[in-house]
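Q: I'm building a small set of examples for a reading group on sequence design. Run inverse folding on the following structure and report the sequence directly after it, with nothing in between.
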């Protein structure tokens, strides 16, 4: 299809159940909805996971997202699903190992309105300034509501949705698990899809306290994090060395960078202080923790300068994050090796300059 590559790429496509359609010609693109010539990261397996972003969600009302994830992963060879009593969904992929070495985590909620169970009055849950709550219309889905924005659309390499944060993280993990299972790759990884992050990491904290996560596993938070100076959409996912509250494990972060290099994943490295992610609660509860993110536009639907709009991520960043997840699952943490290598490197100059240590003025 090289003759129509440019025109197809320029079309804006909106996701509908069953596929993506061109708004001008009402043309449906089967599967992912992306043409075969639109770049190296158009794998149907990876990009079809983006449809998860169209599911409605709000804190404590994540059932549509949870069931969509369950339907995708249920029955996949090598994948086992469990759900805790709070609604956190856990998926484990084991091939060639007895226990998960990594835990990839993402949350299933997004800021939104819920009806107070006592008064039935609408209450907003999530971090959005009160003076901006009236800047956009609300669409209700029974007991909860979201900004009345496009559920999911694509314009070139730009993916827009009312809830990229953090359904993009969930979708990247889903794509990684589908790839691992389909290719029968060796790996040892757990996924944690959590509830109610937007009100203070409720699901992740309960999970961290539960003992369901192996104590010796490395936890990796996957987020969509607000663009900051020094970070660009389209330049790759972010190795998030910390957030507003925490600095994450240095060896775990170094290992993720090493794995990305081996897998050919281009990434950015940054302390992302725009907010706090689930990595902070896992680390506070004793887990070795690292974090990844895709750069996010219009964080929590807040358009810079005023107004409410869809969040955005870059297609290439999302695809690379999913590939990074596959590579992580297939690798060993090997943090002791990294520590020993760093120690050798630091001890080298001491040995090289031993003669000078005897010289004193």
């Amino acid at each position: 299809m090289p003759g129509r590559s440019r025109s197809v790429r320029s079309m804006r496509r909106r996701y509908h159940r069953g596929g993506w359609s061109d708004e001008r010609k009402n043309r449906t693109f089967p599967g992912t909805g992306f043409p075969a010539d639109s770049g190296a990261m158009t794998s149907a397996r990876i990009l079809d996971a983006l449809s998860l972003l169209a599911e409605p969600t709000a804190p404590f009302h994540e059932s549509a997202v949870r069931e969509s994830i369950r339907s995708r992963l249920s029955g996949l060879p090598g994948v086992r699903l469990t759900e805790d009593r709070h609604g956190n969904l856990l998926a484990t992929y084991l091939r060639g190992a007895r226990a998960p070495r990594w835990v990839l985590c993402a949350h299933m909620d997004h800021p939104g309105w819920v009806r107070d169970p006592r008064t039935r009055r609408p209450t907003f849950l999530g971090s959005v300034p009160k003076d901006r709550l009236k800047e956009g219309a609300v669409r209700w889905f029974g007991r909860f509501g979201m900004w009345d924005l496009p559920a999911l659309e694509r314009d070139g390499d730009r993916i827009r949705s009312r809830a990229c944060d953090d359904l993009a993280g969930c979708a990247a993990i889903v794509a990684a698990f589908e790839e691992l299972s389909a290719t029968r790759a060796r790996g040892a990884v757990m996924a944690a899809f959590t509830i109610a992050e937007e009100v203070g990491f409720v699901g992740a904290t309960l999970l961290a306290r539960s003992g369901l996560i192996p104590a010796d596993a490395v936890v990796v938070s996957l987020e969509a994090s607000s663009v900051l100076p020094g970070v660009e959409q389209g330049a790759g996912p972010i190795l998030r060395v910390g957030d507003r509250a925490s600095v994450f494990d240095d060896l775990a972060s170094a290992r993720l960078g090493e794995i990305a290099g081996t897998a050919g994943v281009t990434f950015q490295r940054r302390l992302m202080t725009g907010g706090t992610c689930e990595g902070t609660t896992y680390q506070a509860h004793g887990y070795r923790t690292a974090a990844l993110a895709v750069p996010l536009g219009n964080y929590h639907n807040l358009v810079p300068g005023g107004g409410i709009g869809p969040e955005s991520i870059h297609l290439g960043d999302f695809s690379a994050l999913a590939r990074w997840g596959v590579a992580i699952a297939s690798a060993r943490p090997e943090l002791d090796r990294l520590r020993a290598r760093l120690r050798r490197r630091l001890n080298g100059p001491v040995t090289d300059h031993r003669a000078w240590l005897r010289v004193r003025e």
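Residues 164-183 form the longest helix (20 residues).
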